Amino acid sequence: MIEFQNVTYNHQKDVGVNNLSFSIPENDFTFLIGPTGSGKTTLMRLIYFDLFPQSGIVRAGDYSSNKIKKRKIAYARRDIGMVFQNYQLLEDRNVYDNIALPLHVLGFPAKEITERVEECIDLVKLDGKEKLNPTQLSGGEQQRASLARAIVKDPSILLADEPTGNLDPVSAFELVKLLQEIHETGTTILMASHNYNLIKGRGYRIMELQNGHLRGNG
Q: Is the pLDDT score of 1 beyond 80?
């Protein structure tokens, strides 16, 4: 489902990734750990085709970095959900409209948009808060809205880049529990975190990134 073959991407100032090779099979749940600046976000952006390797090949689903044409990137992203540390919700739209946005962009019919959004709102436990703006939500609620927006298009791959970084311990635990529920539906999940205590002992694969290099269970 996700594969890196000798992938290198270096930024001018920050650490990127260096000669990474690993694969994540379909329906897997993998944690990517490492300190801030270790290259986790670069790795995520490569999978999302937001960056392209300076050398090597990245494969995500049916697409690969060495073959995908620019006009096809949007199609590749239809099957990849992305959750960010800073929520990235639109403050001039309510919770419902934020979650529905990807479906409008993709041209889904109105009835299906309503059904999918309501299902996701129920899943992330934001019932009754559909009409609130993001600024009226707690940090944990905003991140759950962000998660709902990422999964509303029913992606095969879900990338979560430090999704608990701004959350208190209880909200962080609840978010990981939600990710586990989503994984059980068949979604392949890669979650990046610097909080090892949050993810240890859950029985999932853990990859460790340090200074752009993969250690251990790659």
A: yes
